[in-house]
Amino acid sequence: MASPINPPRGMRDFLPAEKARRERALSVIRSTYAAHGFDEIETPVMEDIGRLQSGLGGDNEKLAFAVLKRGLSGDELHRAADDGDVLALADLGLRFDLTVPLARFYASHRTELPAVFRSVQVAPVWRAERPQKGRYRQFVQCDIDIIGEAGELAEVELISATAATLEALGLRDCTIRVNDRRILTGLLEHCGFDPARFPAVLISVDKLDKIGAEGVVAELSEEGADAAAVLGGILASFERHAADGGVELTASAITGLLPPGIDPDAVADLETLAAGLAGLPTGVRLRFDPTLVRGMGYYTGTIFEIAHPASGSSVGGGGRYDGMIGRFLGTEVPACGFSIGFERVVDLADLAEERSADSVALVHDGTVSSRVLLSLKGQLLQQGRRVRLERRTKNMKLLLDGLAAAGFASFAYVESGVTDASALSLHPLG
User: Are the CB atoms for 98 and 141 separated by under 8 Å?
Assistant: First the structure.
C-alpha cells in the first residue's frame, strides 16, 4: 500500500507562484517595519517546555506541540501514557507564538540591546489546532514589539507602523478596534463579579459576537446570576454599536458608552492614544470597542485588533503586556506588541505581479549541447539576469504560460550553432 503523500493535517505545501506571492507580501511587511525603525531578530523554533507551559501563553499553552526527550525507552513511554503524564517526558516544545520567545530573548540579551528595543519577528509558529478553513497547525506570524517604553508612544508607534503596512499591502477599509484591560476589569467590578472569576468571565464576554448578550448571560449564570444580569444589560447596549466596530476613540464617546466611573485614567489614556494617531492612512480607522477582550491572559493595558470587511476573523491584534518579561528578569519591564496574521492578510493583499525585466528563459531542444547551454546561461548571468533553461515541448503555449506565471519577462530559442548570448532574439512573455 502506498504511503500517504499529503502534508500533515493543518500544514501546507506552496507551489512556486504562491510561494513567490507570499515572499512579495513578506518583503513589503519587512521593509515597512524597517522603515519605521524596527530591527529584525530570530529565535529558535523550540523553547524549554517549562517556559512554554509557565502560564505566559494563556490558552495557547494547551495547543503547544511537545518534543519528547531523546533516548526514551518504550517502557518509559508506556508508563507515562498510563499515568496520563506525557509532558513529563518532554523537555522542549515548538513555539506557539513569538511573544514568549521574545520575552526570553530580551531577558537573555538585555545588556546588548538599547534601552527601548523595537523588534520585528517574522516566522512560523505551531499550534495543535483542529484544522479548518483559515486555521492551520503551522502558520506565519509577523510581530513588532516595543520593550522598555511605558508611555503611550509605544502603542502609537506600533499602530502607526501596522497601519502603514496594511496600506502598503493594499488593504483598504481596515478598522483597528481598541480597548483597555483596565476598562474590562472595571466593568466586571461594577457588575459585582468575584475578582477570582474575572478570567473565566472574560472568556464568555469574548464570545459576544457569536452567542449574543443572552448567551453570555446564560454561560455566566453560575458565576453569579445577579452580576450576570447586570453585565447582560450592559452588553446588550454595546451590541447596538457592534456593526460599526464600536464608537469614536474620544473620552466623551467612550464614557457615554460605559457605566459611570469606569477607570477614568484608562479612558484618558485612550483619548491621548487617538490624538497621537490622528495621521493614520485614510484606509484605516480607529474605534473603541468595549467588548474587545483578546484571549491572552498576559495583557495588562491597551489591547487592539484589526478587522477587515472581507475577513470573517481578525487579521491582526496585540496589546500591552507589562508583566511578562519580569517573570524572567525579576524586575518589571514595560512591553507592547502588535501581530499581523499573515495567513489571512496574504489572501487579502493587493500585490502587483512581480516580473523582472532582466529574467529570460532559454528554450532549447536536443541538438544543443549542455556545454553550449551552460556557456550561454553564464554569459547572461554575468549581465545580472535571471536565467532558466527549458527544454522545448510540443505544447509551447503551456510552456510559455508557465514561464510567465513564474515571473519570466522574456524567452529566447537556442538554435544549434549559437554560442554568443548577444545573438539571441528575446521575445516578451505575458
Answer: yes
Instruction: List the domain range (segments joined by +) for residue 28.
Output: 16-39+96-348
Count of positions (residues) in the chain: 430
Is residue 5 a part of any domain in this protein? no
Distances (CA, A) of 46 to 90, 121, 232, 322, 327: 12, 15, 42, 24, 19
Q: Are residues 165 and 295 in the same domain?
A: yes
Residues 6+ apart with CB under 8 A from 347: none
Which of 348, 370, 400 is the last residue in one of the domains?
348
- Cell 484589526: give the residue: 306
Q: How far apart are CA 103 and CA 147, in angstroms?
A: 9
Distance CA 164, CA 237 (A): 33
- Residue 392's contacts (CB-CB under 8 Å, 6 or more residues apart) are 363, 364, 365, 399, 413
Q: Which residues contact 215 (CB under 8 A, 6 or more apart)?
A: 207
Rounded to the nearest 10 degrees, the angle between the axes of helix 225-239 and helix 181-191 is 130
Strands across the sheet containing 90-94: 46-48, 90-94, 66-68
The pLDDT value recorded for residue 318 is 93
Phi/psi for 55 (5° steps) reads: 95, 0
* Burial state string for 222-258 with b = 16 or more CB within 10 A and e = fewer than 16: ebbeebbebbbebbeebeebeeebbbbbebebbeebb
- pLDDT recorded at residue 362: 95
Q: Identify the helix (H) or strand (E) that includes residue 319.
A: strand 316-320
| Whether 304 and 390 share a structural domain | no
Please indicate, yes or no, whether residues 75 and 121 belong to a single structural domain of this protein. Answer: no
The answer to whether position 2 is within a domain reads no
| CATH number, residue 267 | 3.30.930.10
Query: Within this chain, do residues 396 and 369 fall inside the same structural domain, yes or no?
Result: yes
pLDDT at 112: 96
Q: How far apart are CA 299 and CA 293, in angstroms?
A: 9
Q: Is pLDDT of 1 > 60?
A: no
Maximal C-alpha separation, the chain: 91
Q: Which three cell numbers stand for residue 277?
A: 494617531
- Closest by Cα among 165, 201, 207 to 181: 201
Per-residue model confidence (pLDDT) at position 173 = 87
Instruction: Evaluate if residue 195 carries a pLDDT over 60.
Output: yes
Which pTM was predicted?
0.86
Same domain, 164 and 194: yes
Task: Provide the domain count of the chain.
Answer: 3
In a domain, 1, yes or no: no
